[in-house]
Specification:
- It is built from six helices and 15 strands.
- Helix 1 packs across helix 4.
- It is globular.
- The chain starts with a strand and ends with a helix.
Length: 357
């Protein structure tokens, strides 16, 4: 992998990730942009104990532009985009309309490919491996920022999810705090550790799924994917490395090499869930990594450390059946109690049925 860092016309950082070492990236951003000026404020909710980012400047962000005005395609002639060069493999740049900025963290955009009409599932294994390298590198870089405590790499795919740019891309958030979802996992891990005299909750969950087998979707030498016992979403898969690590940086070479094959197969199965002739399946793919800050808030008789956390990816769709979406209505949005219409065992069976031949 070759990494080339540059600056856009308004001062934002842009990084090219190339599979070839002989590629030269010296194109200049020719757009007449003013220096970026974004504000993001973190407000604490005293009742729920969580935090909300207030970012009013995002109201003016780009919204469903025509394909020939896509800001994530390479620049070509007089059509100038966020990427100054006329081609690229993988690109990461600071979001022009970030939810988190300055002392409140950082937001980045990850363009998986220059092909506007492609999807992650259509990438080659080599190219998907380059995306993994980019995720890993950005995790390392953002973790060194004093304003970042947790790094979250994710992809929103599909208009149903709320995606406003059709080009295949994801995002990376550097949060200035430990996210509520991760905090819940860490508290559960601490309670399990205390109750079992030192056992690891994540290891226990993976071992149980492997022993049961009914919810296993696919298994490789280094990775296992399963529908969780208490899945929240109609079709939801958790992908774990078999050797527990806290973050992407700690993956060994075997896991890194096998990941593209396993992950691409999962994405391709997702597009086949609802049968031939159906539109692409909307999904969210979310990497869960251990926070980089101190974990004192989870200390107790059995304190947890970063090494107690297990890196994993959660992949789910909001489509519950052909032409119908799972809406977060009263119980889910009002009380955070999910109601799932698809039994996890049935979801796993369907995801096994649509395996590549």
């Amino acid at each position: 992998m070759k990494k080339t860092s540059t600056r856009l016309a308004d001062g934002r950082e842009l990084i090219y990730y190339d599979s070839r070492d002989d590629v030269v990236r010296d194109a200049v951003d020719r757009r007449p942009l003013d220096p970026t000026s974004t504000t993001s404020e973190i407000r604490h909710d005293p009742l729920l104990g969580d935090s909300v980012a207030i970012a009013s400047h995002r109201q003016g962000r780009t919204y469903h532009p025509p394909a020939d005005e896509c800001p994530l395609c390479p620049s070509e002639g007089d059509r100038l985009s966020e990427i100054p060069d006329s081609s690229y493999d993988v690109v990461v740049f600071e979001n022009r309309f970030p939810s988190l900025a300055g002392d409140s963290g950082r937001c980045e955009v990850v363009c998986f490919t220059s092909d506007h009409n492609a999807s992650f599932a259509e990438l080659t294994e080599e190219h998907a491996g380059l995306v993994l390298d980019a995720w890993t590198d950005r995790t390392a870089e953002l973790s060194n920022l004093p304003s970042v405590q947790q790094v979250f790499c994710f992809e929103n795919r599909g208009a149903e999810i709320g995606v406003t740019l059709g080009h295949p891309h994801g995002q990376i958030y550097g949060y200035p705090f430990t996210t509520p979802r991760t905090a819940l996992m860490l508290r559960s891990a601490a309670a399990h550790k205390e109750a079992t005299g030192g056992g690891n909750l994540f290891d226990h969950v993976v071992a149980q799924e492997l022993a049961d087998g009914s919810r296993i979707v696919l298994e490789g030498e280094h990775w296992v994917a399963f529908v969780p016992y208490a899945a929240h979403w109609p079709y939801e898969v958790h992908l774990y490395p078999k050797r527990r690590v806290p973050d992407l940086l700690a993956l060994d070479e075997g896991a890194r090499t096998e990941f593209p094959k396993v992950y691409l197969e999962l994405l391709r199965r997702f597009d086949r869930i609802f049968g031939e002739g159906e539109p692409p399946t909307p999904y969210i793919a979310a990497w869960h990594q251990a926070p980089f800050g101190a974990l004192e808030e989870f200390d107790g008789d059995a304190a947890v450390s970063r090494d107690d956390f297990a890196l994993h990816l959660e992949l789910f769709t909001i489509r519950r059946t052909s032409g119908k979406l799972k809406f977060l209505a009263g119980s889910e949005s009002g009380m955070n109690v999910f109601i799932n219409d698809v039994p996890p065992e049935a979801a796993a069976q369907r995801l096994r049925e649509v395996a590549s031949s």
